[in-house]
Design a protein that fits this description.
Elements lengths: L3 H8 L9 H9 L3 H17 L4
GO molecular function, one term: oxidoreductase activity
Length: about 55
């Protein structure tokens, strides 16, 4: 496990759009029900309108 800061610094590529799976993976780690819901909505929107991975 790593901190959010380490994840953004060393592991996430912020120069490309997120994959469709990223919001689903983040939702599984969210502690807030509202965050889980919003990430689920984002994932659904990406599947319908976003880039295909």
């Amino acid at each position: 496990m790593c901190s959010l800061r380490s994840a953004f610094t060393y592991f996430l590529d912020v120069t490309t759009p997120p994959s469709q799976e990223l919001p689903h993976m983040l939702a599984t780690q969210a502690s807030s029900d509202m965050d889980k819901k919003r990430l689920g909505l984002l994932a659904t929107w990406l599947m319908k309108n976003g880039r295909k991975t």
